[in-house]
Write a structure and sequence with these properties.
219 residues; alpha/beta; Ribosomal Protein L4, Chain: A; 2 domains; 6-stranded mixed β-sheet; 6 helices
């Protein structure tokens, strides 16, 4: 079991949360995490780059001037790639960079990324994360009290509440719903911040998933 401290809004430790390594993969698996990270990064690429080849450039195919007798170098049509506004020698075409990965491996990678954060002590858990009204200054003070001085992923039950509105204008902070935690976002941020009730509810859903539950994985 990994013990994760639970803090209050002033940064004081008020309890702890037990995290079962077996539920999150037993040990950190770098190869699996890299495969999942590369997959998600590739799937975010649009692959819509396009440049014109010679047959697509709107120029006449007429030879610019005769082959011999002008004193100039030999020259063909204006479509050639070495002339201004000409075509590309190796034109780009729309291409799908999408990679696939078995669903069980994706789910395990998501859990294993959380385990990596826990092992490195980069999970910050609050006893309660609740704001009566949006207050960016108050949320910044909360991050400072928790000694969060690098990029932070904030996992909430909902990204529409006052807590989310208080954090969204801060630099180096990214908001997400707890059921959308994924390897890419976890590894792209130094810290993960959430509250105790939200994390426990997520762990319960993961336990049901591991034991054969029917929870749908967050893409």
């Amino acid at each position: 079991m990994i013990e994760i401290p639970v803090h209050d809004s002033q940064g004081n430790k008020v309890g702890s949360l037990q995290l079962d390594e077996a539920l999150l993969g037993g040990e950190v698996r770098p190869d699996l995490l890299k495969q999942a990270y590369v997959r998600q990064h590739a799937n975010r690429r649009l692959g819509a780059s396009k440049t014109k080849k010679r047959s697509e450039v709107a120029y006449s195919t007429r030879k610019l001037y005769k082959q011999k007798g002008t004193g100039n170098a030999r020259r063909g049509s204006a479509q050639t790639n070495i002339l201004r506004h000409g075509a590309h020698a190796h034109s780009k075409k729309p291409h799908s960079w999408r990679l696939d990965m078995p669903i069980k491996m994706r789910r395990l990678a998501n859990r294993n990324a959380l385990l990596a954060k826990a092992v490195d002590g980069e999970i910050k858990v609050l006893d309660k994360l609740q704001f009566e009204k949006p207050n960016t200054k108050q949320f910044a003070a909360l991050l400072e009290a928790l000694k969060i001085d690098r990029t932070c992923l904030i996992a909430l039950q909902s990204t529409l509440g006052s807590e989310a509105k208080s954090a969204k204008n801060l630099d180096h902070v990214t908001l997400t719903q707890i059921d959308r935690l994924n390897t890419f976002d976890l590894l792209n941020h130094r810290y993960l911040l959430t509250d105790q009730a939200t994390l426990q509810a997520w762990l319960e859903r993961v336990a049901q998933q591991v034991n054969g539950g029917s929870e749908v994985e967050a893409k």
